[in-house]
Sequence to fold (803 residues):
Amino acid sequence: MGNSGDHESKRSRAAAPAAAKQGVSGIGAVLAPAMSGALLSRIFNWSRSGVGPRLLAAVLLFSSIVTLVLTGLQLYLDYNREVGVIATRLDEIGRSTTGSLGESLWNLDQNQLKLQLDGILRLPDIRAAEVREIADRPNPIRVAVGEPGARSIVTRDYPLYTTVQGVARTIGVLHVEATLSEVYQQLLNRALVILASQAAKTFLVSLFIIYMFHLLVTRHLVAIADFVGKYSLARPPPPLHLERRPPYDPDELDKVIVAFNAMCGNLERAYGELREANANLERDLKIRRRAEDDARASEQRFRDYAETASDWFWETGPDHVFTYISDRVGAFGMDRAALIGKRRSDGAFDRDAEPQKWREHNAMLDRHEPFRKFEYRGRDTAGRVRHFSVNGHPVFGADGAFMGYRGSATDLTVQHETQERLRQSQKMDAIGQLTGGVAHDFNNVLTVITGTIEIIQEGLADRPQFAAIAQLIDDAAARGAEITSQLLTFARRQPLEPREIDVNALVVETAKLLKPILGEHIEIVTRLADDAWSAMADPSQLSSAIVNLAVNARDAMPGGGRLTLETANQELDGLRSVGDGDVMRGAFVMVAVTDTGHGIPADIHERVFEPFFTTKGVGRGTGLGLSMVYGFARQTGGTVAIESEEGRGTVMRLFLPRSKGEMPARTAVVQAPATARGHETILVVEDDPLVQGYVVAQLGSLGYRTLVAGDGAAALALVDQGARFDLLFTDIIMPGGMNGRELAEAVRLRRPGVKVLYTSGYTDDTIVHEGHLDPGVALLCKPYRKAELSEKIREVLAGEPPA
Fold:
């Protein structure tokens, strides 16, 4: 019994693993290819290639799901039935063996217990059995057969009883284990059989469905797709027909083909109509496009003209209000947006000054007449006065209604300014020529007066009352000489002796002279630039210019004020000169004279430099001070600028050209001239008899011998006759067609090295160029006194270079 039980137990234990291993290997052999990624990928790609594969995939998927669900349900029912059989067997073991096992346990017969347990182990699906004694003593009885399992088992525990004196008493427990491995193996085998048979059936059915779907539907859909893909409305093919074996009844595909052919016919007719409509539309579009291109070209042409022309264009409505102004108006400082909605007269500057002109223009507009070159003045956005010339033409609608005006406008500001500068320049040149000619004759007279008055003063030294009268005549002559000097300076005919000067030093010295001239009620302030450049100018003329500016400033401050003398370095680039309008560029030294007086009205800024123009009362000035400053500045190569506002004072800026040297030369203190005598022979050439007589008398009183000629021809005749002389003393401007310079050159051809002294009351371009004496030229300006005459003659005879 014992050996038999062990053998059965070993057989049972050996069979279960073998069955389990066979089941696992069977599942792996079936499912391993289906789970490979490459196969799934190919199936997925194939299923996307058409309707048939998708239908096959759908059928397979649905059939597989149904098969799996039904197989799972069947296996579940089989599992419950098999488990129920095992549970019934265990219950039967409990009913049939507990009594005998309890009796054997009560008798402590372990052999009998083991035989009985082996019998239980031989029953189907029983894996292990055990009897445990329940007793309060050491080493209770425990008999076990088989191998207990940890998984897939069903267990039962049955109490073992014995009856003692009619009372049932629990003496132990029967524990039985049944394995489910055989059940699982059977279920697995059954599932594999079901799945394999269902899969084969589903696959065959699906292939049949695919074939029938291809035969009835898919191939016709492909034919329809090919027909549609190759269909062309331009060259339509014959109607579509399906390849079907007769006889057959029309189905849905035939209805689709009929409808499709009808649709194609409608498309062909619609396409023909559309093609005809497109042709008509294309013709209309070409005509419209050509018209639009012409209109666009015309508009662009107008815009190009409007924006590139020197003028600007405008339009007004019937009420003469601007409705359009071209953008070109902005180039002239006008605000286009501000002008829209206004009349022309609204922005006119001269509407009140010239009312008659505007009344006539408005009357012409009301009569709807064209107009040309209507000129008026207005202001730009910066407030500057501008001159405009306007042309306009009335515009009428198709019904003859007046629509407004179209026209153009031209900015004439530059032309007006140029004409004004030209007029001013011509006026200044004319005044200069006039004043120069007057000064020439007047200086001849003053030369005689100043010279003879010196002789009279010497003879009246012991008669004070007559000496005083002679002094008055001398002062008046000096005053006349000063006036003629200022006239010549304005006319730029005053010979200058420019040199490199320290402007700061000259301003400081001049400021000292101004204190007694201006008076105590005028405060003098100097603001000198530490790095002021040296200037190239005549120091005496510059000092006179500063004095003239200061005197004008004093007259503008009758109640007192402040006079500021300032120097600075200036780089000019485009400063327009007053009067002639020349543009000044380069490096200049600025000398500014600023006062706190009543200022100069803006409308006379351009006239303050005119000779004899003055705003002072009669007898309070000649009006030559600023003219002299202007002439000196322009002759020096600089200019003068005015900045003034009524009630806020005036700034006069004098610009002098910067010297090219590095160190300015300081002017030596001028000593009073002393009368020098001589014994040489002098050839005097003078056309004015009064001056000629005066010069001969003065030279004779100085000890010189004289030869006299009234013009160049007479002088050359004396030279050709062999007359001996040491010095040629000649006037520059003389009648007879030969001036003093030409005479000197002719004499030097005959007498090389002869010394020449020129004299004149008015110098043209004969020996003076750009305001400077030519190199090596000695000049004695009229009027001159006896001491100046003697000093200049000794200087030339001694061979000293002229200052």
Summary: The chain has 17 helices and 23 strands. The mean pLDDT is 76. The two ends are 167 Å apart (CA to CA).
